[in-house]
Amino acid sequence: MRIAVIGAGTIGSAVAKALAEEGYEVVATRRKTSKVMWLEDYGVEVSNDNKAAAEKADIVILAVKPNKVKKVLEEVKPAVEGKILISFAAGLSLNFLKRLTGAKIVRAMSNIAVLVKESFTAYTTDDLDKEEIELVERIFGAFGKCIRVEEEYMDAITGLSGSGPAYASVFLEALIYSGLKVGLPRDIARLAAAQTLLGTAKLLLETDFHPAQVREMVTTPGGTTIDGIFELEDSRFRTAIMKAVEAATKKSKILSLEIK
Ligand SMILES: NC(=O)C1=CN([C@@H]2O[C@H](COP(=O)(O)OP(=O)(O)OC[C@H]3O[C@@H](n4cnc5c(N)ncnc54)[C@H](O)[C@@H]3O)[C@@H](O)[C@H]2O)C=CC1
Ligand SMILES: O=C(O)[C@@H]1CCC=N1
């Protein structure tokens, strides 16, 4: 199974590395290859020839920015005809992609946790048979967890879990900063913040607890947590998160309109 990853930038190089580590034969392309030669250490072939990479591949993954997709697809159109083409481009619909190519299209949204195989990938397609779905899910399995969804959810997924590591990082940065404010050394603040977020996420994934139940378990009456929760509520923390996800979802919905 040979996979071409077109656009070895932030997400493309993470994807190429994860697939090579899983034993796939991978070629990754980028206009300026010097920045990603490190991928060769993981067995990834690095190239600047999209057409040749797509021709030799069984499956093509598109990881260029949405405004570059049209140009790249014009270049590789004959090479991807009838093949599975997985697009990670935010905001570009199955129909938008189908108008540009005769490939079997999978619209997917992963996130940067591909780097540690803990990504959440949601995908949608109406072109693939059962075996092809299994194949695509094995590929996404190399990145972390995956689910198939109706296309109507893809913009919301983009706003929530595609961008999510950025929101979580803002929260983590704030926690680490708070640690410094209350007198913790940097390394202890960093570990305390990251492990606390990881542990809470695991509690949700491995039990049936609702986040509100976890919050209640932690909040001892008259104790310390309630004073912290009071400040979060006063700062409209939850509203800020909801507004962030809503704004990113809206942007995903209009991204394709911005492409000429
Ligand atoms: N960064 C992230 O966490 C995620 C990004 N995405 C999607 O992945 C895509 C890429 O995003 P990033 O990796 O953040 O951007 P990026 O800018 O880091 O990567 C894009 C890469 O494509 C390369 N490129 C541009 N034109 C090219 C061409 N004609 N041929 C070959 N390579 C070309 C660029 O040099 C760059 O390295 C976007 O469509 C984005 O919506 C999806 C999920 C998460
Ligand atoms: O910011 C972006 O457009 C991409 C899509 C999801 C995460 N990063």
Features:
single chain, 260 residues, alpha/beta, Rossmann fold, ProC C-terminal domain-like fold, 8-stranded mixed beta sheet, 11 helices, 52% helix, elongated, binds 1,4-dihydronicotinamide adenine dinucleotide, binds (2S)-3,4-dihydro-2H-pyrrole-2-carboxylic acid
Task: Summarize the structure in words.
This protein has two domains: about 150 residues, NAD(P)-binding Rossmann-like Domain (Rossmann fold, 3-Layer(aba) Sandwich), CATH 3.40.50; about 90 residues, ProC C-terminal domain-like (ProC C-terminal domain-like fold, Orthogonal Bundle), CATH 1.10.3730. Helix content is about 50%, strand content about 15%. The chain has eleven helices and eight strands. The protein has an eight-stranded mixed β-sheet, sandwiched between helices. Strand 7, helix 5 and strand 8 form a beta-alpha-beta unit. Helix 2 runs parallel beside helix 3. The longest helix is centred in the C-terminal third of the chain and has 21 residues. The protein binds 1,4-dihydronicotinamide adenine dinucleotide and (2S)-3,4-dihydro-2H-pyrrole-2-carboxylic acid. 1,4-dihydronicotinamide adenine dinucleotide binds next to helix 1 and helix 3. GO terms for molecular function: pyrroline-5-carboxylate reductase activity. It comes from Thermococcus sibiricus. Catalyzes the reduction of 1-pyrroline-5-carboxylate (PCA) to L-proline.
